[in-house]
Design brief:
The protein is mostly beta strands. It has a single domain, classed as Sandwich (Immunoglobulin-like), CATH 2.60.40. The protein is 0% helix and 41% strand. The strands form three sheets. The protein has a four-stranded antiparallel β-sheet with strand order 2-8-5-6, with no helix packed on it. The chain has a four-stranded antiparallel β-sheet with strand order 7-4-9-10, with no helix packed on it. It has a two-stranded antiparallel sheet with strand order 1-3. The termini are far apart.
């Protein structure tokens, strides 16, 4: 397998408006291998704090670092703990496998500012 896969994101400026503790976040994850013959093996959401909850609205739930490969990635919601007052970096780590069995991983992270 050659190369890796692309990551698209939209920046949200949380410097101008801080995320309040206890907020519910909508998270959209899309993983598309660059090589059409490659298959997505795993997709993990990392960085949610202890006490945080994540759900896809289809019965899948979890907290902390969660494997979301089989989840409905268009409707993921995360609920931050009410006592969360420090900034967070939430990341998505995806691993793909090529037709030859070689694997490649890539990650993308977003910062959430909860304190100035």
């Amino acid at each position: 397998m050659q190369g890796d896969f692309g990551v698209e994101s939209v920046a949200v400026d949380t410097v101008m408006a801080l995320v309040p503790p206890g907020s519910r976040l909508s998270i959209s994850v899309q993983v598309t291998p660059v090589d059409a013959d490659s298959k997505v093996q795993t997709v993990k959401l990392q960085g949610l704090p202890a006490g945080g909850q994540i759900s896809d609205g289809s019965g899948n739930t979890g907290g902390g670092n969660v494997e979301i490969s089989q989840w409905n990635m268009d409707s993921i919601q995360a609920k931050l703990p009410a006592n969360q007052k420090t900034n967070l970096a939430i990341s998505v780590v995806a691993t793909v496998a090529g037709p030859d069995g070689d694997t490649a991983s890539a990650s993308a992270a977003k910062s959430l500012n909860l304190s100035p």
